[in-house]
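Hey team,

Filing this mostly as a record. A colleague (T.K.) asked me to run one chain through the structure pipeline before their review meeting, and I want the input and output archived in the tracker in case anyone asks later how it was produced. No errors, nothing strange. Just documentation.

Input sequence:
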Amino acid sequence: MGLFVVLLLLALVIGGFGLLVEGLTWLLVIALILLVVGFFTGFRGRSRV
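Output structure:
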């Protein structure tokens, strides 16, 4: 029973860490997309003036 609890806690910690890494990866992807979109809209806005 003790081994089962230890394995369950280990799986939760590893799973939580993997979820954190995946969340950070998606956050980075979204930030890069917004940066590119902002760069192009700003560049287009400056070129009109």
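Quick notes for T.K.: The first helix runs from residue 2 to 48. The chain has one domain: 1-49.
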